[in-house]
Amino acid sequence: MSGEKITIGNVEIISLSDGVLAFDLCNFFPDIPKQDWEPYQHHLSPEHGVSFNLACFLVRSGGHTIAVDTGLGPRPADAPETPWGGLLDDFKANGIKPEDVDMVVMTHLHRDHVGWNLQEKDGKFVPTFPNAKYYFSAADWEASHDPALQPDRFTNAPECVWPLEELGLMELMEGEFSITDELTTLPTPGHTPGHMSIMISSQGERGLILGDVLHNTVQVHETDWVSRADIDPETTRSTRRSLMERLEREGLTVAAVHLPAPGFGKIVRLEGRRYWQAL
Length: 279
Ligand SMILES: [Zn+2]
Known about the structure:
Bound molecules: zinc ion
CATH superfamily: Ribonuclease Z/Hydroxyacylglutathione hydrolase-like
Mean pLDDT: 95
Low-confidence stretches: none
């Protein structure tokens, strides 16, 4: 299901993937008792776990080719069977070259969103997307240097993010940052301090690249269910509550990085309950 495409006005979004991970529930949602999942089995994988796509959304806007999030990165040499690491193959399968990308935008700096930024060659860090500048939030840049957070929360930042500064490829974003005339960041903090979604507005149509505001479709309704990956649970909840309300009210098209591929859908209400409706 990779390579699927939607358009929002003049903006084109292609869903690519670095792979699919599987987590068991107690691991990923340690605070949600197993019985609370009983009415929601259809939100789980056949193995009753959380299935987790690693999307990279390739966005064409205003003459730019933008990669939003870059997956977990190359397979480790000693673990060639890992279920991730397929992003560049997926680029190729869809006729897209890393050279085509002139902006890499990260919704946040967790390891599963920055993995393909750089590759190590002959002891040096080389950008995977040689013609791109790399954009991410100043607050996450700061958080990725916080000794209380970095070792657990931004594990691969020293290899995948920090070298971007010295390479002169880093662009920091704050608040509502204009990426192109059609794309603007929308701060959605909680999951990380500087987490950002990306609002798309073109030709009277609107959409949102969500980032990690959702990890499972159940959270569209159970907005207070936080996962172990959410750094600040209370802020995560309030961000998610207000964003789900807004997405439902405004009927925006959503691109969600970790929901089942291709990750395009809408938030709808049926009989008093909110649902994810895949496109
Ligand atoms: Zn993530």
